[in-house]
Amino acid sequence: MAKKKGGRMISSAGLVTYYDSEDRRQVTIDPKTVIAVSAGIGVFIFIMNLIF
Q: Can you give the pTM of this predicted structure?
């Protein structure tokens, strides 16, 4: 019987395992901020459509 190398799970169909890494240089945005900005843009577009 063959031994498993490295203890990694074998992925099927070419799926890749991604690892979370904490990088201090990355930009982090709170999900609530993304939702609030998206809603604000949506309201702005709605108002602009009513005006014009």
A: 0.53
